[in-house]
Here is the input.
Amino acid sequence: MVQWNLAAVVGVPGVGKTSLCRQAAKDLECTHVNYGELMLEVARQKGLASTDSEMFSLDIDVQHQIWRTAAEEIKGMSNVLVDLHGVDKSQIGYIISLPIETIFPDIIIIIESTCINIMERRHNDPSKRRIIEDIKSIKEHMKLLRSSIATCSVILGCTFTVLQNNDFDECLDELVDILGK
Here is the structure.
């Protein structure tokens, strides 16, 4: 268990972090913020986009403005569990999407799973248009996420840990144990 005010939970798309965060926030009686949903809300309010696809097709400078605005909103929150990818894959390469210049997590938790589980979750989630990636690409993304988050934690001076989500209930128990207050 670690003392925290802001915890960042990161993972590649389809790893199950949003489902884990929703339930953990209920169990821990804290606020859950999905960074991507908050960004889309900001984009909608500014009249820039109404869907994820529209938002992520905007000029990268406009996307950065949306990211900063969403991060500023999170910065003012307390007792919050922030759910985000940490590293996003774009058409031009990978982008670190944990806004460490604005928000300062006390702990960062990386959620991982097997590539097969991730591919199955993406395939079985009709609510989102998921990127289709092969196992090699998912492994690369997870490896870059780990190294990027390790670097971010050094810069921030915070702890980071890695949890395996191959069994939802086990991973949820571990997450709640780490964050339990």
